[in-house]
Amino acid sequence: MTKRVQLTRGNLVLELPVPPNLVLPRMGEPEMMKMRYTAVTCDPDDFAKQGFSLRQVEMRRTTELFIVITMYNEDEILFCRTIYGVMKNIQHLCTRKSSQTWGADAWKKVVVCIVADGRKKIHPRVLDCLTLLGVYQPGPYMKNFIDDKEVTAHLFEYTASFGLDPNLHFKYPDKGIVPTQIIFCMKEKNQRKIIATAERLCTPGCGTRPGNKSIYRLWKTFDLNSNVAGACGEISAYKGKNWSLLLNPLVAAQNFEYKISCILDKPTESLFGYISVLPGAFSAYRYIALQNDEKGVGPLASYFKGEVLHGRDTDISPPICRILCFELVAKAHSNWILKYVKGAVGETDVPDSLPEFIGQRRRWLNGSLFAATYAITHVGQILRSGHSAARKVVLLFETVYNIISIIFAWFSIGNFYLFFYFLAFMIAACFLFSMGNKPQASKFKYLLMTFLLGLAMVYMSYAAIKCSIKAAQQGGSANSVMLFSVIITYGLWATSSVLAFDPWHMLTSFIPYMLLSPTYINILNIYAFSNLDDISWGTKQDSVEIDLGAVINNGQSQVDVEMLSTAADVNEIYQEAIENLKQRKMKKTAANTKRTGGPTLSAAEREQAAKDYYANVLLLWVISNCLLIIAILKGSDPSGTFGDSNSTGRVKAYLVFILVFTTMSNLVPLQRFIGSTFYLLVRLITG
Fold first, then answer.
1. Which of 230, 345, 336 lies closest to 283 in space, CA to CA?
2. CA–CA distance, 563 with 62 (Å, rounded to integer)
3. Reported pTM
4. Which residues constitute the domain of residue 430?
5. Domains in the chain: how many in total?
6. Could you say which of 1, 207, 363, 605 has the lowest number of CB atoms within 10 Å?
7. Whether residue 565 sits in one domain with residue 470
């Protein structure tokens, strides 16, 4: 059925009735009886200027908390895990009747925005879930163009009065669920931009389930500390029912890694006031701190910089979260800090297969390297900030420590070779796998390498125990240093975990982490450096889609739009969504992508320049590690390094130096141990 629709300030805005079969606990309220659709044809920065509006603005509601759930192609289980966790948090806000901010109607101050990176990338069963909640209705009214203006995003607004849990069961107010204001922003292509105007912005990733009080605890940190620009909670690996997923060594290793980071690293960085990365899976920001100055310079400008960069400058693109952290702390004439909130737990889904894990860590490692380089080269911004002299000294000290850590990480593969010089063929094989190959295509090769490296770690552990016993018996300064470095490293992990009353990962995940540590050093680093030119998140989509068609203004601010003719048609879509989730039936997505033309010569030249730049970085990394190995091994006998003799050759001296550095990295300010312990004391006193 074709219907003539009046444009709203030149924009296509439709009020669509929800399916009659949709069970509504609260009847008669317009925001729950109708879903609003808006075809957005502008950049988020120009949303208000172009005459667009949101329901919250029109109803004159104050938005205290804006929760953004970002997703790409996650399935319905991961999506429901996150959205249901968010709903339980909003329920908790409504129970805080003595609060000046929250209370029975707290849900009116919270907006949940679901951002999908690409209309053709979103999982079809996630759309089915949104249909059941009343948030989404597929239909012929969705268009690619409004007149000659390209639609950049499809915006759906609805206030859901019930929830959907990870088991795909409906949850109604009798289970405590309160209304939830939802905005579903389905972008035509990924632009990494969000529309947000709120006092605080919380960004849980799809697949992360926040604890029932976690979002409130993050908000409370901002409420109690006016100079906090950003905060993050504890990221916990999803372990499955009865911790069954820990039987997978890859999941167990990541669980151990996350726990050590949240026990040692994050509390220490929080005391300094600068957390190197607020995890995208669960963090929050103060909106005013994100704003640029009058010249357009500031955190948001740096955050969005990746949209217009080309060639070598695109290395800023992957680590945007890390760049944002530095820009907030180093903001000119401001004294913003970042905080870690231990009680705010977000349980996230971690990769359980090796190819997915390698791909994820490629982004993390490359992002960490470039972000650390960015922070070091822009350290002068800290001096121009509004921090006290004492905090500037602390931040500069942290920068020096980061420089040393980068150098150590840069030569990590060379150091590993020096300890296991007989594994040269494995390292060479890793390079061959990584150059031009995706982990999914070389899955069994990577599994074999991981297994062999794990066996090498078993041998090393046996040798380390045997050498430690022998070193303790023989004595001598070199042997004492080696023994002390081992004890202090593992001792700090165990002691800090006990002090934090969270030691279980030492029992369940320590051994898998140790067995996979060579994989972290070799396979992950080699794959990351061999794929520096892969700067995307796998979500770029440059072509303009025309499959939805267009509507043309008739000159009287009216357009003809195809609509579902009857309520029965709307119900049919609703019933189809239910059947899809029951049967887990996959919908076929369009395979043909229409393009508007080939790449220009200048684009090809920029791409080639970028490849040359990243090839040079890879070459520098390989050559520098080879020179290190040659300098240490030339004229030496590695086989006698740990013999009975107390003499100190070049190889032994260097390896002792590495062990000393490892010890000092834990001891120099007793940084992580003292920092985490002091953090626990402060938290105990202040609550």
1. 230
2. 33
3. 0.79
4. 397-538+609-686
5. 2
6. 1
7. no
